[in-house]
Amino acid sequence: MRAPVPAAQRMKGLSIAHQRDSFTASQVRMANPTMTTETPAGGTPVVPARGPSLRTSLLLGVIGAIGATLATIVVLRNEYGVWVEVLIGVAALTFFGLAAYGLMQAVLALIDTAGERRRQERTVTERRKGARARQPRS
Under DSSP, is residue 94 helix (H, G, I), strand (E, B) or coil? Predict the structure, then answer.
């Protein structure tokens, strides 16, 4: 059998990128939000919000849509130089991207809200005692 080679000798000829990528998960201490959050006395751990709220995302979507519409109208109705029209077009595309981002985040916030509601209902159902307790499925 071969004797194990120490890590310092193994990595001697490797580049910095290879050395960084060769660490194990326990050495890197990978983040896992379900493992690091503390469980309150009531039961389920509190999970921090993952993105903007539903109201904020819808507001971003509406602002982006209004901005894109106005910038497009300004380009179509007025006669400007090429560079001014290009700049207004860039602004319109940026606003369009903001609208798309806001709408996608709104959908994700809606899904997250529904998941949180289901998680709370499950917690309440599991705490019930006696005749109101959750019955096992047959």
Answer: helix
- 76-94: per-residue pLDDT in tens? 998 889 999 999 999 999 9
pLDDT for position 53:
87
Q: Which of 115, 67, 55, 61 is nearest to 93 (CA)?
A: 67
Nearest CA to 54 out of 123, 120, 108, 116 is that of 108
Full-model pTM:
0.54
Domain boundaries, given as residue ranges, for the chain: 52-129
Cβ-proximal residues to 54 (8 Å cutoff; 6+ apart), any chain:
106, 109, 110, 113
| Residue 87 C-beta-side C-alpha neighbours within 13 Å | 5
Identify the residue whose tokens are 């959908």. Answer: 107
28 vs 19, 31, 71, 94, 122, CA distance in Å? 12, 9, 48, 38, 34
